[in-house]
Design a protein that fits this description.
Layout: E1 11-16, H1 20-35, E2 39-40, E3 49-54, H2 59-71, E4 82-87, H3 88-93, H4 96-100, E5 106-108, H5 116-127, E6 139-141, E7 163-167, E8 169-170, H6 181-185, E9 189-190, H7 193-205, E10 210-214, H8 234-243, E11 250-254, H9 263-271, E12 278-280, H10 288-294, H11 300-313, E13 318-325, H12 332-345, E14 349-354, H13 372-394, E15 401-409, E16 417-421, E17 426-429, E18 439-447, E19 451-455
Parallel strand pairs: 1-2, 1-3, 3-4, 4-5, 5-6, 7-10, 10-11, 12-13, 13-14, 17-19
Antiparallel strand pairs: 8-9, 15-16, 15-18, 16-17, 18-19
Length: 462
């Protein structure tokens, strides 16, 4: 039997898989756990509680989380440890995870992040009681809860943190045939403008200079709850309100949908100086036949026209995208159309994914599923096109001065600092601690395509 632990404080390890929305959810869970008297550890070996916030967009993400949880079981050899899955995989698989992972204690879905701290406390109390050593406990909560996104809005900021995520909506009503998000995040529901603005003001008051507004389809914000005003969508109204927050320097948003880009939003990039010149615009395929099978509700021609319109208004706009290769029934001709379109547009960057069957989605049951070898070949080929354009898009920065927001030490070389341009390009440079969090000019000396390097000489007073 394990000895009874007297302290109510636990050391909690949280690992996040997937998108920025998941990162934001993990931040909120960490804060609530600390408010309950626990501490967050980055060292899994000392953890009393292990929480994996999961992603279900692709099978690989689920397999990574399951594999990680299996390896972490060894932690409980010498002491009681609470194990929990949170988020999208927890929502989609529910109680079935208990059969796959015998040592699992918690399964908490996407609409119950605000209840995680209470569930951890309940499970710890049982685990730390010697009477329950040989009894397995499990808490499963994946039920929908109205306004759950409004319950998570406070932030614990790291020292010197200048950029933060702000969730403005949850869910998705689009039902793309390859996507599991509507099943894991539920229907669209948006937070009131005043509530979002208050959260941004709170962040700015504590030193944040840049916010990224998050939503599954962020530019469809408020379309069911709020109306257009003076020809402006609720999302543009929100952008204008956030733009008025004094002290805020930059506004980003992700991820949008092409159908949500109307004239008011395109014009906002010209009218709102704090709105940076970067759009992540998911393409998914350049074949109209495949786009229709994906239920993407636009054509390749309309996508190209939208890009041309955006660049006509904001010539310096950096545009990134998502692309799926190997969708069921994708022929060589379909893929060739995607490749041609990617080369026509010349994205600054693209995330290229091999189609992954997600149980319960229409695409998973479609005929003409392609072999992995075909998916891999197309993925490799398209990445070559993407990488070529990344080099071409970054090369003009060499020799120029650009404004960056310094975020902190580089992850690959802590002796250097890293920041981002308004177009979301990473810049590595040499500096001093006082440059942390600063908006500053750096002269670019070289480019590797996805990373720019700055000349420390222009900092002068290093």
């Amino acid at each position: 039997m394990f000895p009874l632990r007297r302290s109510a404080m636990a050391r909690i390890y949280i690992k996040t898989y997937g998108c920025q929305m998941n990162e934001r959810d993990s931040e909120q869970v960490a804060q609530m756990l600390m408010e309950h008297g626990h501490t967050i550890t980055v060292t899994e070996q000392e953890a009393d509680v292990v929480l994996l916030n999961t992603c279900s967009v692709r099978d690989l993400a689920e397999q990574k989380a399951l594999g990680k949880m299996g390896m972490l079981r060894a932690l409980s050899r010498n002491r009681p440890v609470v194990y929990g899955f949170l988020g999208c995989m927890a929502q989609s698989r529910g109680s079935s995870l208990l059969k796959e992972v015998p040592h699992l204690d918690l399964v908490v879905g996407t609409q119950k992040f605000h209840r995680v701290a209470d569930y951890v406390d309940q499970t710890l109390e049982r685990k730390w009681s010697a009477r329950f050593d040989d009894v397995r406990f499990s808490i499963i909560d994946i039920e929908e809860e109205q306004n759950s996104q409004s319950a998570i809005q406070n932030h614990v900021l790291h020292e010197g943190q200048v950029s933060a995520f702000v969730s403005i909506m949850q869910g998705c009503n689009m039902h793309c045939t390859f996507c599991i998000v509507p099943f894991t995040r539920g229907h669209e529901r948006s937070r009131p403008v005043k509530e979002v603005v208050a959260e941004v003001k709170s962040l700015v008051d504590r030193g944040v200079k840049e916010v990224t507004l998050l939503g599954q389809i962020v530019n469809l914000y408020g379309r069911h709850e709020f109306g257009n005003v003076d020809g402006k969508s609720p999302f543009v109204q929100l952008l204008e309100a956030v733009h008025e927050v004094a002290g805020l320097e930059r506004i980003r948003f992700t991820s949008p949908h092409p159908i949500g880009f109307r004239k008011d939003l395109i014009g906002a990039f010209r009218q709102l100086p704090k709105l940076v010149e970067h759009i992540h615009l998911p393409l998914q395929s350049g074949s109209n036949r495949i786009l229709k099978a994906m239920h993407r509700t636009y054509t390749a021609e309309k996508f190209v026209a939208l890009v041309d319109q955006i660049r006509s208004v904001t010539p310096d706009m950096a545009i990134t995208t998502d692309i799926i290769v190997g969708f069921p029934g994708e022929t060589d001709e379909d893929y060739a159309r995607t490749r041609e379109l990617v080369d026509r547009i010349g994205f600054d960057n693209a995330f290229v994914f091999k189609f992954s069957q997600r149980k319960g989605t229409p695409a998973a049951a479609m005929e003409a599923q392609l072999p992995d070898s075909v998916k891999e070949a197309r993925n490799h080929d398209l990445l070559g096109v993407v990488n070529s354009w990344a080099l071409r898009r970054s090369e003009p920065f060499v020799g120029r001065e650009v404004e960056i927001l310094c975020e902190g030490p580089s992850k690959t070389n802590p002796k250097r600092l890293v920041g981002r341009t308004r177009g979301n390009k990473i810049v590595v440079f040499e500096g001093t601690p006082r440059h942390l969090g600063a908006l500053m000019k750096v002269r670019i000396t070289r480019s590797t395509g996805y990373t720019l390097y700055g000349d420390p000489a222009i900092l002068g007073d290093l």
